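Hey team,

Filing this mostly as a record. A colleague (T.K.) asked me to run one chain through the structure pipeline before their review meeting, and I want the input and output archived in the tracker in case anyone asks later how it was produced. No errors, nothing strange. Just documentation.

Input sequence:
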Amino acid sequence: MKNWVNIVKLSVGTDDVAGLAAWQDTRHAQTADGYPRHITRMWPKRGDEILNGGSIYWVIKGVIQCRQPILRLDEVIGNDGIRRCAIVSKPGLIRVAATPRRAFQGWRYLSAEDAPADLTAQQQAETALPPELSKALADIGVR
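Output structure:
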């Protein structure tokens, strides 16, 4: 049994994995030390499990398409004085087997056992399918 937990998060406004990568390359989406981050209102109660090997799995156009290992959870205080959590990830996106996922708000935990498998090195090098096709194939069980 794996002793970590992952997070699954919608990448709102993203059309494909390349779009998420482009967003993460912007200064606004990075920590002061240059790592990609996602700021969220809620602080994970299972932070120790997440930091024990967990990743953030990104849902793009209704399909989990990629992941990033989580490095740390940083406290961020907004201009409004509210404490938030920055989920700081390792740079680079690892494509995973396309897995349909319905829309939800915020983020959800994803057990290591339920997480989609990484694509092979050869599959990683291939051009990604369009999100709509990837979702259609995943919906019928073809990954």
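Quick notes for T.K.: The helical segments are 17-24, 47-50, 121-125, 131-139. The chain has four helices and seven strands.
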